Task: inverse folding
């Protein structure tokens, strides 16, 4: 996959999406930002991408990263997509406040989108102002980088740039643009849009296959196998969310990627007290996207993806090229879709086994621990670190979370199931169970200060959550849930 490259001193960008996928985007150049200033740069990611981190702090970078000035020669676009939002079909969504600057190709040939969120109103903006506020963009930065550090596939944050513009939310807020890097921005909603349009469907599928599953290019059954590959990646992804207590919050089909990366950090959060019904999003009144519903919801989104692929699979599966076999396509896609929950459950069982130090899943032991946790609602993240401490002979952390009588019978069974080498088991558990996650109250405190111009707490928190497994006695407060009296205003900046 090659295309002409636009070269600035900062970025060399290709544009295969714009070149190959007519009908899937509109040209768009960001709106003017009155006083763009780069606030944060992800040095590690910049280096990984072969970019010069220092150069990303310059005024030229601020112009580009705010969307104010396109990189010389770049073809910048707003991508079109549809989506099922809270179950309801929206035929036309698309990047209402975002643009694709282009694609970065690293030394290994890996292609990644460089995308701006908050860069102004596009044709898809509907009633929105096309903008984003500093708080939510820094929030996406923090949480996506925490996810990456946890080993969970995700879009990455390269930079946040203040625009110098005041935007209206509940109150006036400083505007900002997030520069996001992703292995692509193709969503289930992109396929729903392509299906509706008709012509772009096959080009989009072939493009996505070439980009994400090059081994399938040209295969006679590539669309069905592509579907299976996406089902598998999403099953693995959602199991990783469940294993760390992550709740995405807005699992609409336009926020479900084909790459298997987590995307769109809005009202997402990590669960504190264990409760499978936990929901953070204030608009999710029915609990559709609650913690425990995430696997079936992703399965539901993949059903929408399967529907979008029916014409392509029907043409490939049929013996007669002039007679697509829709029934056979539906049967084949349904068969693959039917494996989703089992794939997820197998991944999750392995994660939970590792979380409690077992080499193999033991569903009764895991279910029974969850039953105790449901009853006593201990801090989810803290419980697994406390179990490792228990193995080291330190019972205090667990006693602070769950009454001893309630957990003692389970602990006996657990000890009997564990390998002999308890110290080594505890160390192995600590390598998969984070001690530091972006705790809602700490994120809140850091973003409040950042919105007022003080980035120190943000930088500190970022440093802690990007080393999530390494306990440091000096960072005790970062491992604690919110105090009961944390009070009002909790869980803000989840908006837009
Ligand atoms: N302030 C806004 N102005 C214009 N469009 C918006 C705004 N906020 C959201 N939208 C659009 O509403 C739809 C749903 O928004 P959603 O919050 O899922 O996406 P997003 O956070 O803007 O972006 P992404 O999914 O790329 O992270 C998208 O089409 C998005 O572009
Ligand atoms: Mg979105």
Result:
């Amino acid at each position: 996959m090659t295309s002409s490259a636009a070269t600035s001193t900062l970025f060399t960008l290709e544009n295969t999406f714009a070149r190959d996928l007519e009908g899937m985007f509109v040209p768009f150049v960001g709106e003017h930002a009155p006083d763009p200033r780069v606030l944060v740069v992800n040095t590690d990611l910049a280096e990984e991408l072969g970019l010069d981190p220092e150069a990303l702090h310059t005024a030229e970078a601020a112009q580009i990263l705010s969307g104010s000035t396109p990189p010389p020669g770049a073809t910048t676009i707003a991508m079109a997509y549809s989506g099922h939002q809270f179950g309801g079909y929206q035929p036309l969504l698309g990047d209402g406040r975002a643009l694709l600057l282009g694609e970065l190709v690293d030394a290994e040939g890996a292609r990644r989108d460089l995308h701006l969120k908050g860069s102004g109103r596009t044709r898809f903006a509907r009633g929105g102002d096309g903008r984003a506020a500093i708080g939510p963009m820094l929030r996406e930065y923090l949480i996506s980088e925490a996810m990456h550090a946890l080993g969970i596939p995700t879009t990455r944050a390269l930079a946040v740039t203040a625009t110098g513009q005041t935007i209206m939310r509940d109150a006036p807020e400083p505007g900002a643009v997030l520069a996001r890097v992703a292995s692509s921005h193709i969503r289930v909603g992109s396929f729903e849009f392509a299906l509706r349009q008709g012509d772009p469907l096959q080009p989009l599928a072939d493009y996505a296959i070439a980009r994400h599953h090059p081994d399938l290019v040209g295969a006679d059954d590539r669309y069905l196998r592509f579907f299976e590959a996406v089902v598998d990646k999403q099953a693995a992804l959602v199991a990783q969310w469940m294993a760390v207590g992550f709740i995405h919050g807005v699992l609409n089909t336009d926020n479900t990627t084909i790459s298997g990366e987590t995307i769109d950090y809005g009202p997402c959060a990590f669960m504190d007290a264990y409760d499978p019904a936990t929901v953070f999003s204030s608009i999710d009144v029915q609990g559709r996207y609650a913690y425990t519903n995430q696997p079936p919801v992703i399965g539901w989104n993949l059903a929408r993806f399967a529907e979008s692929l029916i014409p392509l699979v029907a043409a490939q599966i049929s013996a007669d090229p002039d007679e697509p076999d829709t029934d056979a396509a539906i049967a084949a896609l349904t068969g693959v879709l039917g494996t989703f929950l089992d794939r997820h459950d197998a991944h999750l069982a392995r994660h939970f086994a590792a979380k409690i130090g077992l080499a193999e899943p033991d569903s009764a032991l895991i279910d029974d621990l969850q039953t105790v946790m449901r009853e006593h609602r201990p801090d989810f993240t803290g419980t697994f670190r406390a179990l490792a401490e228990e193995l080291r002979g330190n019972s205090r952390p667990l006693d602070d979370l769950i009454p001893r009588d309630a957990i003692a019978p389970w602990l006996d069974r657990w000890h009997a199931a564990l390998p002999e080498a308890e110290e080594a088991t505890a160390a192995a558990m600590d390598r998969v169970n984070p001690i530091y996650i972006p705790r809602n109250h700490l994120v809140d405190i850091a973003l409040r200060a950042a919105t007022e111009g003080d980035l120190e707490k943000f930088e500190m928190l970022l440093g802690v959550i990007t080393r999530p497994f390494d306990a440091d006695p000096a960072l005790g407060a970062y491992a604690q849930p919110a105090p009961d009296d944390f009070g009002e205003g909790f869980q803000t900046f989840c908006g837009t």
Summary: The longest helix spans residues 294-317. Residues 93-98, 117, 124-125, 128-131, 250, 254-255, 263-264, 266, 496 surround adenosine-5'-triphosphate (ligand 1) (CB under 6 Å). The first strand starts at residue 6 and ends at 7.
